[in-house]
Amino acid sequence: MSPLRRRAASQGGAPVDLTTTVGSVELINPVMTASGTAGHGTELAAYVDFSAIGALVVKSLSADPWPGNPAPRVHETAGGMINSIGLQGPGVAAWLSDELPEVLATGARVVVSIWGTTVGDYERAAKMLLDAPDGVIAVEVNVSCPNHHDRNRMFAHSPDTTADAVEAASVCGLPMWVKLSPNVSDIAAIAAAAAGAGAEAVTLVNTVLGMAIDPETRRPRLGAGGGGLSGPAIHPVAVRAVYDVHAAHPELPIVGVGGVATGVDAVELMLAGASAVQVGTASFADPRSVERVRDEIEQWCRAHGVGAVRDLIGDAHVR
């Protein structure tokens, strides 16, 4: 039992019901890892009990192995970090055979993130998941990574192309969540297109387009030029995106992600309309942050008389 859980137990009172649902997917609590920050396998297993969090969302995988972007790939900023990893990965088939079995042995519930350069790429990656074993509970369709697609090619920048990618990925036979970009003028319209194409939920948001330049060399600090900004700096952006999409489509489940480093950050996203949250960049500074955030949510609920975490979802809209 973590220190926070021991402290909460010593305070007495009714237990907090942390269960939640994202579409048809039931979670034991609302806290997951964010794609890209926990690797493809058991990289965080020495620090996190995977069976005790809502789900492990793995780094995005393509149908084929992908080398990623040139180094340097990561640069720390005042409010987080900017990265341009470029979706490096072994491909879906190699992941299924080489890494997934060890992940499932930990008791993890796994969400597979997939990406593609073309609609056909999404379909191929999704087809490879048709026979995924029990324990793989959903597919997160990443249509919004700024580290590979340029602004004119990112599927998430258009309702039509978002729908095309989601429809192609629907052959996976698993519940689909669609990860959207904050770098758009009307995210609610794109979320509606994703839902119309078969998504059970949307994940809001991916990183914000950014760049860092070294004044000494007068060159970009990342090997690929620009990248994606994550961490506390984008938390208000994520809250606004979740709030706007929930206001426009209250029936559409949302997974909130962006700058979640504390339980209060997670509670804020849930009040905006998220049914669950993901912890990403915070894991680089504190690899135990996923479980800590879960514990802090429970502690916050106890302190505020909240008996079920589901009661937080969208509550900022009704006051």
Report on this model:
- By secondary structure, this protein is α/β, with parallel strands linked by helices.
- The protein has a single domain, classed as Aldolase class I (TIM Barrel, Alpha-Beta Barrel).
- 29% of the residues lie in helices and 18% in strands.
- The protein has ten helices and 16 strands.
- The chain has helices at residues 3-10, 92-98, 100-104, 119-127, 159-169, 187-196, 235-248, 263-272, 282-285, 289-303; strands at residues 20-22, 25-27, 31-33, 56-57, 74-77, 80-83, 110-114, 136-142, 176-180, 201-204, 208-210, 213-214, 219-220, 227-230, 254-257, 276-279.
- It has an eight-stranded parallel beta sheet.
- Strand 7 (110-114), helix 4 (119-127) and strand 8 form a beta-alpha-beta unit.
- The radius of gyration is 18 Å and the shape is globular.
Task: Please give a quick description of this structure.
The chain has 319 residues and is α/β, with parallel strands linked by helices. It has helices at 3-10, 92-98, 100-104, 119-127, 159-169, 187-196, 235-248, 263-272, 282-285, 289-303, and strands spanning 20-22, 25-27, 31-33, 56-57, 74-77, 80-83, 110-114, 136-142, 176-180, 201-204, 208-210, 213-214, 219-220, 227-230, 254-257, 276-279.
Tally of DSSP helical segments: 10
Mean pLDDT: 93
Count of strand segments: 16
CATH topology: TIM Barrel
Q: Which structural class do you get from the secondary structure elements?
A: alpha/beta
Helix content: 25-40%
Cα-to-Cα separation, first versus last residue? 36 Å
Question: Largest sheet, described in full?
Answer: 8 strands, parallel
Please give the radius of gyration in angstroms: 18 Å
